[in-house]
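Dear colleagues,

As part of the handover before I leave the project, I'm documenting each prediction I ran so the next person doesn't have to rerun anything. This entry is a single chain, and its sequence is reproduced below.
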Amino acid sequence: MSVDLTQHERELLELLIGGASNKVAARQLGIALRTMELHRQKLMNKLGARSAAQLGYLYADLKRREGGQATSSAAEPVSRAMAI
């Protein structure tokens, strides 16, 4: 999976997979709740996720492939091909 995420998108994902609700993440980023919800939906579309949980797995998988470490405590991430 080759996906280019902006720094803002990565920050948002780190908050979400770290357990922050949309409301908490919006407050921390200084944006409106509705804006946060729209950003999350855009990220789900961009990564091909069908749920918030799958979004976390796909992001963890992306970080692993890039050699980084996602903050999620999720078990084994699934590949995008398996998620479809």
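The chain has one domain: 7-83. The two ends are 12 Å apart (CA to CA).

All the best with the project,
I.
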